[in-house]
Amino acid sequence: MYAEERQQEIVQRARAEGRVDVVALADTFGVTAETIRRDLTVLERAGVLRRVHGGAIPVERLGFEPALATRDAVLISEKERIAKAALAEVPEDGAIILDAGTTTARLAHLLPADRELTVVVNSPVLAATLGLKPNLTVLLLGGRVRGKTLATVDDWALRPLAEMYVDVAFMGTNGCTVERGMTTPDPAEAAVKRAMIAAARRVVLLADHTKIGNDYLARFGGLAELDLLITDNGLDGELAGEVEAAGVRVVRA
Q: In terms of Cα–Cα distance, which of 172, 174, 130, 124 is closest to 145?
């Protein structure tokens, strides 16, 4: 087993069990305790686990939300593949929403410069990226900018969305389960995401496999509101089957 595969398994166990123990992990994987400690250090730096005495716990248990730069450095190749697969869902013309997020940011970089599209964003970072593409009309939603995600939230973001109707909303999420739907740690961001979904004919969720099966504080949509989930091939087949059974088409890039 490669170190990356072992680390992904450690994260899955931590989220399922609420905590992982160094000695138990070393025994399970047949490696030294020092190897597991190095794994936990890597995962803590990635912002997905927090070290505690004798082991680690998932950051969700602390109510901790990793900063944008931290999340952008994790699962880079998976996010690139998801973004490339999402290009097939971008219309030739019309209007789309790009939610703030590290995976949607990769789609923003890949959007063809020759398409006559209106792109609605709630991220100054995405607006700066898209503003360099000459044929795109970029609409930046106003509001308070959250430091954690650099997304705009509150009334100045919500009001314009109430008057819009776009072809496709490309959404990001912190968690997605069959039972609770799509969730995020911050209620203000959840409100904007909810309004984005309401403003779109189709909703496409871009989420790497670590998001599926986890949930957070604020719910912004159920699976019934989702047309398509684009994830990576690290998603467990059983989890993918549960999502598809709920009526959502799943693409594993």
A: 124
d(CA 199, CA 167): 9
**Helix residue ranges, H only, the chain:** 3-17, 22-29, 33-45, 68-72, 76-86, 102-110, 124-130, 155-161, 187-198, 237-245
Quick check: 232 pLDDT over 60?
Answer: yes
Regarding predicted confidence, which is higher, 47 or 198? 198
What is the Cα–Cα distance from 12 to 8, expressed in whole angstroms? 6
The per-residue DSSP string of 143-206 comes to: SEEPTTT--EESHHHHHHHTT--EEEEEE--SEEETTTEEEES-HHHHHHHHHHHHTEEEEEEE
Among the residue ranges 75-79, 136-140, 151-155, the one predicted with the least confidence is 75-79
Q: Are 250 and 229 within 8 A, CB to CB?
A: yes
Distances (CA, A) of 189 to 21, 130, 209, 243: 34, 21, 21, 23
Q: Which of 223, 220, 203 is nearest to 212 (CA)?
A: 223
Please name the residue that has the structure tokens 């904007």.
192
